Amino acid sequence: MSKKIVVLNGSPRKNGNTSALVREFSKGAESTGNTVTVFFLGDMDIHECKGCFGGHSSRECPCVQKDDMDKIYPVVRESDIVVLATPLYYWNMSGQLRTAVDRLFALEEGDGNLLRGNGRASALLMAAEGNGFEDVVLYYDHLMEHLRWKNLGHVLAGGNGDVGDIEGKPELKEAYELGRAIQ
Question: Which of 53, 63, 101, 175 could pair covalently with 21 via S-S, beta carbons 3.0-4.6 A apart?
Answer without folding.
Answer: 175
